[in-house]
Amino acid sequence: MLEQLITSNTIKAIQKLYGVEIKENLISLQNTRPDIEGDITLVVFPFLRMSKKGPEQTAEEIGSFLSENVEEIESYSVIKGFLNLVVSNNYWLNFFNENAVIPTYGYRETKDEDPFVIEYSSPNTNKPLHLGHIRNNLLGWSIAQILKANGRNVKKVNLVNDRGIHICKSMLAWLKYGNGATPESTGIKGDKFVGDYYVRFDQEYKKEIATLVEGGMEKEDAEKNAPLIKEAREMLKKWEINDPEVRSLWEKMNAWVYEGFDVTYNRMGIDFDKIYYESDTYLLGKALVEDGLKNGVLFKKDDNSIWCDLEDRNLDQKLLLRGDGTSVYMTQDLGTAEQRYDEFHPQKLMYVVGNEQNYHFDVLKIILDKLGKDWAEKIHHISYGMVELPHGKMKSREGTVVDADDLMSEMFNTAKTTTEELGKIDGLSEDEANGLFRKISLGALKYFMLKVDPKKTMLFNPAESIDFNGNTGPFVQYTYARIQSIIRKSADVGLNNYSIQHNVPLERKEKELLKTLSQFSEVINQAATTFSPAVIANYIYSLVKEYNSFYHDFSVLKEENKDKALFRVALSAFTSLVIKNGMALLGIEVPNKM
RNA sequence: GGACCCGUAGCAUAAUUGGAUAGUGCAUCUGACUACGGAUCAGAAGGUUAGGGGUUCGAGUCCCUUCGGGUUCACCA
After folding, report:
1. Which of A5, A131, A217, A395 is surrounded by the fewest CB atoms within 10 Å?
2. Which residue lies nearest B26, CA-to-C1' measured?
3. Which residue minimizes Cα–C1' distance to B58?
């Protein structure tokens, strides 16, 4: 690889010129700015201490050494402390000839190693999936894919929150107001159907509170004493002691929800290696707490509740078991973390969860550490920002929640009308056309969500956000489709045999393209280390822009020199391969025509 | 109040993790071979990177501070 080559020879140069052995991390290489001649640039400021000379002279000396001793370096120029190196055509052609025909170019082979376990999605079974889940799902799936492409062994898991008071609320509402209706009888998707009863509970509950307050009760008391909430709590208790009626209702309603979720996940292209249910895991963690109490790591208060003192870490105390012995969210998470560690012996335990839970995960790690679990450090919270709407955040009470299914349908329709307006569906069967609309609409949505740095809060404007021009999924897809068209036509003009060893002079834009293409696997590595699909999206975008610019300036099929024409077909094909492999990491399909 | 995060052009966002003159898209304005597919390309305009101080060869990036915004500190999950 070019960077390794320059790095090792720079070390030699410093040794030879200044008699000092330097470490690799002192060497900083970057792409040469487009307006300056050169392919790769070495920053020489860090070496001034050794050379005891000015930046220009130091750069000059190193440049002269490199161009004399490294075959691949053709020439160099110095601007201030920046040494710009020109790499020979031969180097780029070799790179091209060796890699352009590898279908999995850019990907590493998966190692047989301890896995990276990544949990994402984690829905509640009382509400349908919304825009926030979309970001979570797409991030989790894509990060898993990127890690795999970087050679990691990955396990995708989902922990479904299928029990608790909120689930009982929808169950109770269905019993009271449902009149035996089902998703089948109403034609409503299962998760939406159940979600509607959750909303209904809330409405009726609020009415009861209002009545009680009118009768002179304090609001807080009314909230605790409204008949409905009491009934819901009763139901939860019955659930916990395995009351057969409650359990069977619970199973029936959850099955409806899962049916609905499956539809949404499938449509989104999201999947998991393993699904856990909180109803199976919510009692885990109690044993850990008991042990901690014995060891004196945890302490008990007068009401028998058990706590962890975090004051030595500048944090508050954290409750782990209530006075009545029941557990809280943290307790369960301690338990599931241990379970997952025992099950997988992972290198990393990752959780894709919104940044409002940063504190929770900090505390989780600290407590596990205090409990003496040396694997606590393997826990990694992939924290992402919320998706906001133009008028603030999504609030179910204000009806501003953007539903996942609705959004996908809307995008599908937009893709359809736009494509039809552009007259691009001529000759396609209905199935083909629908498949195309699906690819384009999901491509637009996924690219839009994933091109933003996961850590950042992002704004989603339903009316304007999803564009098909500029830095978008369809823009990338379009470039891909156009290249496929060239490849199809290349046979007609006798240019189909382009998988040969090429040896042609390179135009500047061709060289730039090759340079960018050569960076693909390093980009994957960077995306994998930073857990950021945005790195991939930005890379693909710059590649596509470069290709489009090349395409505009140079003929491929009409080039008169046949060697050059063959090379350009092959270069186009290689570019489309990288586009395809890159988009696959974002879960985006690329169409052959659009 | 304590802790953590964020602030880049009208809007949305990049910046190789401390490197050169802060890139790109949308919107606005101007242009492009009678198209190898115009969902494209080329160009113009738009910035004191919230304000101030510091660290150094070099700061959007690190430190301090002020202002503005967010999250969290639950016997909810």
Report:
1. A395
2. A470
3. A45
